[in-house]
Design brief:
Rossmann fold, 16 helices, binds zinc ion
Length: 371
Amino acid sequence: MLFSEVIGQENIKTQLLKAVQQNRIAHAQLFSGKQGVGKLPLALAYAQYLCCENRTDIDSCGTCPSCRKMAKLAHPDLHFVFPIVKVDKKTICDHFVSDFREAILENPYLSVTDWLNRIADEKQGMIYTEESHEIIRKLNFKTYEAPYKVMIIWMPEKMHNTCANKLLKILEEPSHDTVIIMVSDNPDMLLTTIRSRVQNINIPPIESIAITQSLKTDFSISDAEATHIAHLSLGSYSAAKGLIVQSEKDQWNLTQFIQLMRFAWQANYEALRTLTETIEKKGRESTKSFLTYTQYMIRENFIFNLQIPELNYMTEEEQDFSKKFSSFINERNVEKITEELQKAEQEIEQNVNRKVVLFDMALKFTTLLKK
Ligand SMILES: [Zn+2]
């Protein structure tokens, strides 16, 4: 990864570039900071710069043989350690490394939860004791091609204690051509003995303007929307991306909600059938999320009638629809509609046919809305 591909973080980039140029390369470093601020991308750019054969003052060249291998995360002197989930007695990172490379190449701002979900259903990952033998073995190699062996330990706080203690011995006497970069979301969970042996580099939140720029490049959204999301993301690019995905989902849910209520009021059975099919085709989780959203909208519309703005949490777009629609939700039907939605949610959870459940519910709305 090139420094120019890392979002923002200009001060940290300058600091890292200078350290290499002035030959002040610490053998053990800890990049710590919030999830999504770009610690791993910075570690990758730093590793590439260390090994580049034609580095400039501001970046790696991107074209030398070393850079080309680094870009694929396949340089023989670049090693990765990361949390895994034990499957089929596989307890070392090498079993998962091709998956890991693919995941990071797709999204270097990946969270540890996203990574673990990718390899297993489990949420708890670990760097197992067995990994310590691998770490020692790899660090004992001579360097193949580069002046340094770089080992990136992603989430060292997930290390089993035995493994952490073995690592401690390496940190006490690192060899001159070894650079270990730990990348941590929770440095407080590391052994204090490890923390005291590494150079800590605190990675701050990404500058809001840099997030805005990247969002505009990566997604087709307006300036205003990108600025708003960048502001809400508090400097985390993964949080910003999460907000975009969420707002797309909300938008979809609102569109279906409006149609569901319109067709139910008109008692347009054919349109209701088509609509409920569209909703169920998006899958079980999406259908459940739509039903949760609909409960929220029903509650908000009921409250909207009270005309107390402090009690309403709707977006402007949702309120636009509610100005006319809210009068259809009243004390005679609000509970019954909510019950129907909850019942549908439960049945879908129990794997009852989604098409049947949704259409049945929609039919009930045709009478309930007229109460
Ligand atoms: Zn290069």
